[in-house]
Amino acid sequence: VIGAGFIGAEAAATARGLGLEVTVIDPVPVPMSRLFNPEIGQWFADLHQDNGVNTMFGTGVEAIEGEEGNFSLHLTNGESVQAATVLIGIGVIPNDSWLSASGLLVDNGVVLNEYCQALDAANVYAVGDVARWRHQKHGEDVRTEHWTNAVEQAACVAYNIIHPEQPRAYTPIEYVWSDQHDWKI
């Protein structure tokens, strides 16, 4: 598994729970460190190691060669790792290129106001990973890559479509959760 964020860590835990040999590789020194401080990240490293996951933190992947059943991963530290399967969980890039000719402002997602309306087309709304809305608490445009966000945004957009005279700003209570081994985080 390349990447030790939520997706990579959850996939590693699930695969290990199925009895598979798992190695997690990430250039960060501890898993989930883009979200948590190093001490909490170390708890996750220990959790995975205690559950039999081979971890390689602080090194990246330069190249992947081979084919299904026989991959060779060449690492930035000069080592190589053999794998039957490779899962890459290194983040999300919104699939917004198809909107380039739409006339909408697209910059790391469709740029929206606080009501999840496109800035330059009030009758266009967006939700989910492609939606970058003006977050009232943070005072900046935010894109949240979690399924709960898409569900909650959709509820807000539905309300705003039905009540255009009294729209509600999308102001989520920020949270995420994750299942890793026997931990619910």
Give a short synopsis of this structure:
By secondary structure, this protein is α+β, with helices and mostly antiparallel strands.
Can you describe what's shown?
The protein has 3 helices and 12 strands, in the order αβαβββββββββαββ. With 185 residues, it is an alpha+beta fold. The chain folds into 2 domains: 86 residues, FAD/NAD(P)-binding domain; 66 residues, 3-Layer(bba) Sandwich (FAD/NAD(P)-binding domain), CATH 3.50.50. The strands form 5 sheets. The chain has a 3-stranded antiparallel β-sheet, with no helix packed on it. It has a 3-stranded mixed β-sheet with strand order 6-9-10, with no helix packed on it. The chain is elongated and about 60 Å long. The mean pLDDT is 93.
